């Protein structure tokens, strides 16, 4: 049996989103039914809806920043109860048996995770995301939202928060470390807050100084414009870690020059087109370039608890569902500070 719920979907590549209905599976033995309260709009949603990352599954219900309340649990569920405040991020299943899954790195599952939307679940049905009234998810892929975090501001943490937290933790951002965050957008504004809360010395590298006041308020110690060539001269050999949050082409060689010996540049923005990198620019100081996905389920819970403890949350603009298409256009124009969140009561 299935349940029909209201949702907003993309009917075809690059088409406007429209209100529709979708079918959610019945609550199984280990499933949690969540009444979605808020769903963040991630730039990834737009990439997928526009088929910027390759062929996609339509109709598509985007949304992998989901916060809500448990409405029903299956008879085998032990970790959640009706009324709990919970969240769902970018994945809703994985193989659970490969080395990565067993190590709590489900995001790197050898068989590939089952993504929250634009994927096919183990039941052979398309997955639909959070631009909807409800969602049914296996309890192993649900996380608890601490009481200290408002649900609307917690929703973007399920992608933007963990996408920046995971590499900052992995590359040991903390006291005595100099961290640069490239870009102060949906990802970057979370990276700045988290790096600051971890105790690192934080610098924002942005095209202009337009958002400098915001960057400093969010926890940055320094703010530089990358459009000024003097920035790269004055900061040469400065950083232990550069977290690149933008998905547009940049001059990688110029940014590599900002790394100290053994420094790393980690990319979390995903461009739609391949980018050229001159590997010779890494030579001389054992610098490295890497990437990072989201985090595993345990690390996502760790991130939420960390954010609650340190007062870290997304800065959002709350919108009704009728404004989703407008929000997409504004994201593409960089006209949001810093994350749109849909009030799903309006769906």
From TrEMBL:
SMART domains, per database record: PKS_ER
Cofactor: Zn(2+)
Pfam families hit by this protein: ADH_N (PF08240), ADH_zinc_N (PF00107)
Domain named Enoyl reductase (ER): residues: 15-342
Keywords associated with the record: Metal-binding, Oxidoreductase, Zinc
Enzyme Commission code: 1.1.1.2
Catalytic activity: a primary alcohol + NADP(+) = an aldehyde + NADPH + H(+)
GO molecular function: alcohol dehydrogenase (NADP+) activity; zinc ion binding
Enzyme class, broadest EC rank: oxidoreductase
PANTHER family registered for this protein in UniProt: ALDEHYDE REDUCTASE
Protein family per UniProt: Belongs to the zinc-containing alcohol dehydrogenase family.
Annotated protein name in UniProt: alcohol dehydrogenase (NADP(+))
Source species: Kitasatospora xanthocidica
């Amino acid at each position: 049996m299935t349940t029909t719920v209201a949702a907003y979907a993309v009917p075809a590549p690059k088409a406007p989103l429209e209100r529709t209905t979708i079918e959610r599976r019945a609550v199984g033995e280990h499933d949690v039914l969540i009444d979605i309260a808020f769903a963040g709009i991630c730039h990834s949603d737009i990439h997928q809806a526009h088929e910027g990352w390759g062929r996609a599954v339509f109709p598509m219900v985007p949304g992998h920043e989901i916060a809500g309340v448990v409405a029903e649990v299956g008879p085998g569920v032990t970790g959640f109860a009706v009324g709990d405040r919970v969240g769902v991020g970018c994945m809703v299943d994985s193989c659970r048996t490969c080395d990565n899954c067993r190590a709590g790195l489900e995001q790197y599952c050898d068989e590939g995770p089952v993504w929250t939307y634009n994927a096919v679940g183990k039941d052979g049905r398309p997955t639909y995301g959070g631009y909807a009234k409800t969602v049914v998810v296996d309890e192993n892929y649900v996380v608890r939202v601490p009481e200290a975090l408002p649900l609307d501001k917690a929703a973007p943490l399920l992608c933007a928060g963990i996408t920046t937290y995971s590499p900052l933790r992995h590359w040991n951002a903390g006291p005595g470390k100099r961290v640069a965050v490239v870009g102060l957008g949906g990802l970057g504004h979370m990276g700045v807050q988290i790096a600051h809360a971890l105790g690192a010395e934080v610098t924002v590298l942005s095209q202009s100084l337009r958002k400098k006041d915001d960057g400093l308020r969010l926890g940055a110690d320094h703010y530089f414009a990358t459009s000024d060539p003097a920035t790269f001269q004055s900061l040469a050999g400065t950083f232990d870690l550069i977290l690149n949050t933008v998905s547009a082409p940049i001059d990688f060689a110029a940014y590599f020059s900002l790394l100290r010996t053994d420094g790393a540049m980690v990319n979390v923005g995903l461009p739609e087109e391949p980018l050229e990198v001159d590997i010779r620019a890494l030579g001389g100081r054992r610098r490295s370039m890497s990437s990072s996905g989201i985090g595993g389920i345990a690390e996502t819970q760790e991130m939420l608890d960390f954010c609650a403890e340190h007062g870290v949350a997304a800065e959002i603009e709350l919108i009704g569902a009728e404004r989703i298409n407008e929000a997409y256009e504004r994201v593409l124009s960089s006209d949001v500070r810093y994350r749109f969140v849909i009030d799903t009561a309006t769906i």
